[in-house]
Amino acid sequence: MPSTHGTLPYLPTLRSRLVSAGYIRSWLSDSLTNYAKHRILDVLRKGVLKGSLRIEDKDNTYDFGTSTDKEPTVIMKVRSPDVWMRILTSADIGIAEAYMFQDIDVSSLTGLFGVWLDNRDTLLGLESGLSGIFAQYSALAMTWLGRYNPYMSKRHVEFAYDISNSFFQAFLSEDMMYSCPVWSDEENGINGDLKFGPTPGDLEAAQQRKIQSIIRKARLRPGDRLLEIGSGWGAMAVAAAKLGCTVDTITLSKEQLTLVEERARAAGVADRIRVHLCDYRDLPKDFEHSFDALISTEMIEAVGKRYLPTYFQVIDWALKTDRATMVLTSTSQPEHRHSEYQSDDFCRRYHWPNVYLPSATSLAVSVQDACPGKFVFTDLEDHTFHYPRALREWGRRLEKNFTPELAKELQDRFPLFRDPKELEAFRRKWLYMFAYAEVGFARGYTTLPCWTFTRPENVPEVCA
Predict the structure, then answer these.
(1) Which GO molecular function terms does the record list (predicted)?
(2) Smallest Cα–Cα separation from 121: which of 43, 36, 40?
């Protein structure tokens, strides 16, 4: 792994270099920083119409909007003047970097994101001409400049998943499902943690419910052969193997491959699970028309708009022609704001480089365009509002389990983290992401569909 694996996935962009600590003081005059500050404060005065935000810096306290009992004031303390240029040139990435590197402290991250979403139409002025240029460039680059080719796909997976298995064990459920669970009344529903507090075992139960739900959607039966694209840490593969299926699961992560094989042996199903370290475009030739079902859980985001046809054509090639089912889940954009050109934002920059989010309908259309007449769209289930509780639980667990022992392991693996500021930036990056995603799903700004497709005339059981 390259030593640059840390808070930044690759070399810093021009935007990041321009606003990183030290550059502003060295290359930009105080007058330009003051301009950025006054521009941002003016936009906030006019734009915060719902909710309440207070900004405190060394000079003054600035209040925007109106607080209520239900929506208390969000307080943001500015620790460095670099913050103003970060926001002016980078918008949401600038705020994220300021939080990660402790240039700001925020009383409530979810509250801050709520103010942003509630007023996003009136806060457009925060995105300056410069940040708009960067956004347009990044949207075109991610769509057309080859960032989803096999080499870059491997780099993206290394960055997102090859941190260390111990790190992910610090916040995931025992089965290490890094995807949305399905809550029920047994865990007091999607807001049970807010009403009654978190309960040990709830996340594990909800993740197992999701796994079994997807297995049912895939119509898996003992003796079937399952292809899984995106292994995770093996929970889905182990569950299918315990049912009596044979599983071929695909990953680009060496860390995941190692743990999936260990877990298969521990569960006594190693003879029914094969883990392949390869790209979905490089599947073994003997996979052709060999599988009864395909499951891909929150992986398709990494495929990219340009390669969606290839992705679905590979699945068509691998599945049996007469009886087969495909189940997909993916973080998505709702139809009213979906675009084929998606620019850089915090999550794309710092967690999942260059992901493309489909909409519920655009993905179904992509399947038919890539494989005309080969699949029937049979079911769509919305998991959107199950995600916020999981993200809250992951955040709580990470704060509790980010121990000195885990920090030492990360520092040994990535020398960059021997700098306490970099280690803290890494930790805060994850907490920021959990809150950022929680609000997006809770407000319906981001969605999570689960699609089921089958071969034509593939009825689940005799019904006449």
Answers:
(1) methyltransferase activity
(2) 43
Q: Is the dihedral of CA 296, 299, 447, 199 positive or negative?
A: positive
pTM of the complete model = 0.89
Q: Rounded distance, CA 83 to CA 39, Å?
A: 13
Query: Do 164 and 79 fall within a single domain?
Result: no
Strands 449-454 and 325-329: antiparallel
Outline where 145-252 has alpha helix (H): 150-161, 165-169, 192-196, 202-217, 235-243
Q: Which residues contact 276 (CB under 8 A, 6 or more apart)?
A: 248, 249, 250, 251, 283, 284
Same domain, 113 and 190: no
Does residue 117 contact residue 439 with C-beta atoms inside 8 Å?
yes
Q: pLDDT means per 10 residues in the chain (464 residues)?
A: 39 50 54 88 95 95 90 95 88 91 97 94 70 45 48 48 88 97 98 95 98 98 98 98 99 94 98 97 97 98 93 99 97 93 80 88 98 98 98 98 97 93 95 97 97 92 62
